[in-house]
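Exercise: predict the structure of this protein bound to pyridoxal-5'-phosphate.
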Amino acid sequence: MSRFLAKKYRTHDAYVPGEQPRDKKYIKLNTNEFPYPPAPDVIAAVNAEAVSDLRLYSDPTAKALKDALAGYYGVSAENVFVSNGSDESLNFAFACFFEDGVAFADLTYGFYSVFAELYGIDARIIPLDKDFSIIPEDYIGLDRGAVIANPNAPTGKALPLSDIERIVASNPDRVIVVDEAYVDFGGESAIPLTEKYDNLLVCATYSKSRGMAGARLGFAIGNAELIADLELMKYSTNPYNLDSLALRMGAAALTESSKAYYEEKVGEVIRVREETAKALAALGATVLPSKANFLFVKLPNISGGDACKRLRECGILVRHFSKERISDYLRISIGTAEEMDTLVKEVEKIIEV
Ligand SMILES: *Cc1c(COP(=O)(O)O)cnc(C)c1O
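Solution:
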């Protein structure tokens, strides 16, 4: 830290992303990336002409991408915001909507508390139930906004849409942000509710189910006035927040052919998830039911920290959180069937007594 850093940031703790090591090739199950490349249309969208066009600024209105997302999700373009990863949508939502405070779960996406602290927002941390479920009643009639990851991370558990609707309807004067980073792996999207409720903002991403984490593409869908507020933040910080290649790839990922490709690959991830869950449970592990592209798992006979270390030594990266309540758990992303076979075999070795 320099002696010049503004005082308000001197005690600020930044978000710590899962590692992206370059030293050797790992089976990488630590940051919930998709095990398959983007759809062929996405790859074809990056051609010599597209690269040549980098000479020009990208379209600040992102019109083509917004139109494509609006068509895909059955909303209007004015209901769509596009961002540099969904982290940027979340960032702007925290800046815009949580002046009176925000509520979120004790175990959820780690960035929420970072944004709250960055903007000096009072955060009410609501503990998950003993079985790691969100208790919907805790979010009824709040004195502040809320952000709910659905499915939640790192648990993988999902709330039914009826609970989300009850929460949104009970807080008509507060913004409820639903973070649907993992919705394509088995959750129910709240996007259709954005037509009915002007206080609901749904954030989503290309990082998890479209194999494009490196493209940094996210979006938010909600009432046109909420979207205009996010645009205000964007035009006040970074009007060209998406580069022109990302804009092209984003639209190409929504074609009929891409849709079919992703449906098949997402189906494969879900199938492998269920098989892996069964195999780990057969070894005596506690495995939470998951609607995401990862499993939250407690292994027998070994602590979470030790298991993470031992797996790393065998060339497998998984995520461990040192938070007390979950320090014996691992969050394991779903890779290919082959990668998960290797994982199960190595787990079998490290839990031997
Ligand atoms: C991965 C993730 C994000 C961020 O995704 P990006 O679009 O890559 O910024 C947001 N929310 C949750 C819950 C996530 O797991």
